[in-house]
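DUF423 domain-containing protein: structure, please.
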Amino acid sequence: MSEQIVISTGALFGLLAVIFGAFGAHALKQTLSENQLKSFDVGVRYQMYHAIVLLILGYSSIDTAHVVYWCFTLGIILFSFSIYVLVLFDAKGRKLKFLGPVTPIGGLLLVLGWLLICFQF
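Here you go.
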């Protein structure tokens, strides 16, 4: 995994987290319930935390960097993005039950990435 790809991915996820955070705080404030806004915010925060770690990971030389990269990248997509979709569809009165199990799978991938970092050191 090249350093540029890891850093670019982290930067893209960070950029999207800022955009989604602003969108949630301003555009969705009148549309979503308080609980829906809290869920949306969890997705944004976890996305930003892991984007920052991806940026740091791009400059590191740990042996498991490529596996951590994939755990965090897929984890962000499955965890945060499934929350965004679930919340937005729920706000329109449509439940996407098939996405319910996707969120915890993404969370497990994020945990696995952190475990790999822990075991590295």
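Notes: The radius of gyration is 15 Å.
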